[in-house]
Amino acid sequence: MDMNDHIEKILFTEQQISERVFELGSQITRDFKACTVPPVIVGVATGALLFLADLVRKIHLPVTVDFVRVESYGSGTVSNGQPTISSKLKVDVRGCHVILVEDIVDTGSTLSCLIDYLKTKGVSSISVCTLLDKPARRKVHFKLVGKGKYYCGFECPDDFVVGYGLDYGEVYRNLPYVGVLKPEIYER
Ligand code: PRP
Ligand code: MN
Ligand code: MG
């Protein structure tokens, strides 16, 4: 019952992730320190959980943290391409600089849906900070808002990756690294 035995190879180690998170947090601190209002960090549940928790501790500004939840899969395992927001923001983001935090950008449809939602809230800018980006899979090209910036931890190959928030069937999120799942796990 060792999760590590389900992993074919490690793509990004705990150490590599930690170093990159430190760099991203430092960059965000520099980019937003002159703003009159500190940014609102919006995590996309559930995948962004670990990345957000580590990232906010490397941002040295009095940020606000909130979560949204997007359902892009119906009962099946294939995306229906029409994400819906199932858990909305608690904080008022009018006039705020929002940084959307994701574990991975794949087709782009989740972020595109969230950006449309945030725009209706009258935000000043929308940035995105994702741990991983899989450009090979992009279908929807989302546009940042205002002076929003795009922060990315690592470009990810088009493999079945899990860990550090990323799941397969809601499992493996608690692995401290990002790895490729053995095909025998998802093919059975
Ligand atoms: C995953 C991932 C991103 C999204 C990326 O979330 O965490 O949020 O898919 O895919 P996209 O760019 O094609 O929209 P998922 O819907 O699996 O929910 P989860 O975070 O709860 O695992
Ligand atoms: Mn997600
Ligand atoms: Mg998922």
TrEMBL record:
Q: Spell out the Gene3D superfamilies in the cross-references.
A: 3.40.50.2020
Its EC top class is transferase
The answer on whether this UniProt entry bears the keyword Magnesium reads: yes
Family matches, as PANTHER family: HYPOXANTHINE PHOSPHORIBOSYLTRANSFERASE, HYPOXANTHINE-GUANINE PHOSPHORIBOSYLTRANSFERASE
Per the annotation, which location comes first and is thus the protein's main one?
Answer: cytoplasm
What is the name listed in the Swiss-Prot or TrEMBL entry for this protein?
Answer: Hypoxanthine phosphoribosyltransferase
Q: What is its EC number?
A: 2.4.2.8
Keyword Glycosyltransferase attached: yes
Pathway assignment: Purine metabolism; IMP biosynthesis via salvage pathway; IMP from hypoxanthine: step 1/1
* Family named by the database record: Belongs to the purine/pyrimidine phosphoribosyltransferase family.
Q: Which cofactor is essential here?
A: Mg(2+)
Key words, A-Z: Cytoplasm, Glycosyltransferase, Magnesium, Metal-binding, Nucleotide-binding, Purine salvage, Transferase
Q: From which organism does this entry originate?
A: Rehmannia glutinosa
* Reactions that this protein is recorded to catalyse: IMP + diphosphate = hypoxanthine + 5-phospho-alpha-D-ribose 1-diphosphate
Q: Record's InterPro entries?
A: HGPRT (IPR050408), Hxn_phspho_trans (IPR005904), PRTase-like (IPR029057), PRTase_dom (IPR000836)
Per UniProt, subcellular location reads as:
Cytoplasm
Q: Which residues form the Phosphoribosyltransferase domain?
A: 15-167
A Pfam match is Pribosyltran
Q: Cite the source lineage.
A: Eukaryota, Viridiplantae, Streptophyta, Embryophyta, Tracheophyta
